[in-house]
Design brief:
With 419 residues, the chain is of the alpha+beta class. The chain is 46% helix and 14% strand. The protein folds into two domains: 53-71 and 80-305, no CATH class; 318-416, no CATH class. It has helices spanning 5-17, 25-31, 34-47, 73-93, 107-121, 145-158, 170-173, 176-187, 227-247, 267-285, 319-336, 343-360, 366-374, 409-416, and strands spanning 56-60, 66-70, 130-135, 196-197, 252-256, 259-264, 295-298, 303-305, 308-311, 314-317, 379-381, 390-395, 398-403. Strands 5-6-3-7 form a four-stranded antiparallel sheet, sandwiched between helices. It has a three-stranded mixed sheet with strand order 2-1-4, with no helix packed on it.
Length: 419
């Protein structure tokens, strides 16, 4: 008997959803009678009886508060299923300078492309150029769901007769009835209904109303925290990307979620683009530019983008980024002080520390790295800090800070913790 491809896709989506979620309570609960639950989910999807479950709402962030709706693990499986089906199609429509929620891209790639555009427009900093940087007010909370649904389905149906990378038509590979059903269920689902609140009412104090789904008009807003919301945010603003690149003809343009920039040599020309962009966003997408986050300045003075301050031939971490890294490193230092941490915890902490150090290798912040390492008393230091690649080797009582510029990290870890 031939297996239904949908059942295989559901199992594959489950394995995708559980990555980095193996120890969460929702995932562990789902693993009880796993096959039975996945088969039941498969039957609901096949019969179009699947309904989105209850979400968990909480506030995250100390400096900038954000309202997050975390979906149940069962719904996360469906999100990954829909993502695996539709992302290859949507990926073909995106421009090269859309950086968020795309494989091989991210904040560092966005900063590198931003600097690349600055160099290209200024002839490697020999000539003057200007940067126009803008932001959309309450982006996720003001997405028009009906407009989003129309954009997603129009794109999917437009690509239905076209061939994928294997030479098969998308209409023959994908179940478009299922896609349309899942799009409706996920996009038009209101997570504020019957949600589980985590925290106290005090946590919501200071959160602007235009950043909360509880105060947005009906038919607007997507929950922050879902994989599909990240994908849909790219699809929704792809219209803006095409408008800037095709209609306005701007060459030096890039966007990360709702932060975008345009670089040019004529300051007056960039200033005239602001009302055009504002009108397009309001008329076509129902969005508004944030009036306090419109910046137009000379490039050589330096411009902040994605937590990095870019100046000619150098990059610096913004103060908020340094503070965030310091708080996280201090927290890990306290975890290692006077207590034993299990093997998984040590490996997690070492990976986080090395991730920060690897990220900061791309910035001009040698002094900050030096201070960051030296002030953590639970780090056992060996050798001098000369800016080489850092490798944190976890021990039961803390870290040994070693310097192996050419030594594979995987070999180093395996010598202490055979996997």
């Amino acid at each position: 008997m031939k297996e239904d491809p949908l059942l295989i896709d559901v199992f594959r989506a489950y394995y995708d959803a559980r990555k980095n979620k193996r120890n969460t309570r929702s995932q562990l609960d789902f693993e009880f009678n796993l096959e039975e639950k996945l088969v039941r989910l498969y039957e609901e999807l096949r019969n179009h009886t699947y309904k989105v479950g209850k979400s968990v709402c909480f506030i995250t962030g100390s400096t900038v508060k954000r309202e997050v709706f975390a979906a149940h693990f069962r719904d996360r499986v469906v999100h990954h299923l829909l993502y695996n089906y539709t992302a290859p199609i949507f990926e073909r429509t995106f421009i090269a300078d859309s950086y968020s929620c795309r494989k091989g891209m991210g904040t560092l790639y966005g900063v590198q492309r931003f600097e690349h555009h600055l160099r290209a427009c200024s002839d490697n900093w020999r000539n003057n150029c200007y940067v126009l940087k803008l932001d959309i007010r309450g982006y996720f909370m003001h997405i028009v769901r009906q407009k989003l649904y129309d954009l997603t389905m129009e794109t999917l149906w437009r690509y239905a007769p076209r061939k994928n990378s294997k030479g098969k038509c998308w209409a023959d590979v994908l179940d478009y009835d299922l896609l349309e059903y899942l799009m409706r269920e996920i996009i038009f689902n209101d997570p504020t209904l019957d949600c589980e609140m985590r925290g106290t009412h005090k946590d919501w104090e200071g959160l602007p109303k235009d950043k909360s789904l509880f105060h947005v008009p009906k038919g607007r807003g997507l929950p922050i925290g879902n994989l599909t919301s990240q994908l849909f945010s790219n699809v929704y603003l792809n219209a803006l990307d095409q408008f800037v690149k095709r209609t306005l003809g701007e060459k030096y343009y890039g966007r990360y979620v709702d932060d975008f920039f345009i670089i040019g040599k004529d300051k007056q020309h960039l200033a005239l683009l602001i009302p055009k962009l504002s009108s397009f966003l309001e008329e076509e997408l129902g969005l508004t530019l944030h009036p306090d986050k419109v910046f137009l300045q000379q490039a050589y003075r330096g411009t902040a983008f994605l937590g990095i301050f870019v100046k000619p031939h150098r990059r610096y971490l913004l103060r908020k980024m340094r503070s965030r890294i310091s708080v996280r490193m201090d927290m890990m230092n306290r975890c290692l002080s006077g207590r034993e941490v299990d093997r998984d915890g040590l490996l997690y902490i070492s990976c986080v520390a090395n991730s920060y150090m690897g990220y900061m290798r791309h910035m001009n912040c040698h002094r900050f790295k030096r201070v960051l390492v030296e002030r953590n008393v639970s780090f056992s230091k060996r050798g001098d800090f000369r800016g080489e690649e850092l490798v944190f080797v976890p021990f039961l009582t803390g870290f040994a800070l070693l310097f192996f510029p050419f030594f594979p990290v995987s070999h180093l870890f395996s010598s202490f913790f055979p996997l």
